[in-house]
Amino acid sequence: MKVHREKGKEMNSLLTTSAWLEEELGQKARPYSTYDFGRQKDEQQVSFLVDSLETGFHLVLQYREKLPKDLVMFVGTTNWLGEERHHGVELVIGYGKSQWDILRIARTDAANYNINTEDLITKLSQYHQQFGIDILQAETDTVLFDFIQLPNDLRAFCEDCYRFCPDIVDQGFGSIEDFMEAVEVVLFVRLWWD
């Protein structure tokens, strides 16, 4: 297990990691993360609230590599529909051996398309094997990843994404060409199933 030794602290559990992040972020960790649009709590994880997606992504990229190997970090709930209503987003730290556990913690699925969490993992694993992806955000019906390497055949990738997640074009970009252009500029993909 990788141990982070900054400031003489060994981060070998969720508790010590959350205590370290409390110091780094200047706020107390929430003793849970949320799922189902913030309506449900998972008390096996911890979370922080941050002001924006941009801040959340920055913190994930800044701290993720410093975590022990048995923990994952990602941006969680951004769309609050439960009793908790926030203007910010959730930064989640939880137990996981790989980025696929991010989807399990977030309980991400595409229920309207009869696609469950494990189905999503299977599809995203194919993308990861082909060119490499890095999941930065996951919540109830959304997953955002960036590329380790841009696909060689971007059109084929975008067409495949469209078949897997029609809302990305039908409710988003409007055409495969516009989707391709956006991917080339931002170098990440946000999939959601409405």
UniProtKB/TrEMBL annotation:
Residue stretches making up the DUF4253 domain: 97-194
A Pfam family the protein falls into: DUF4253
Domain of life the protein comes from: Bacteria
UniProt-listed InterPro entries: DUF4253
The protein's name in its UniProt record: DUF4253 domain-containing protein
Source organism: Thermoflavimicrobium daqui
Taxonomic lineage of the native organism: Bacteria, Bacillati, Bacillota, Bacilli, Bacillales
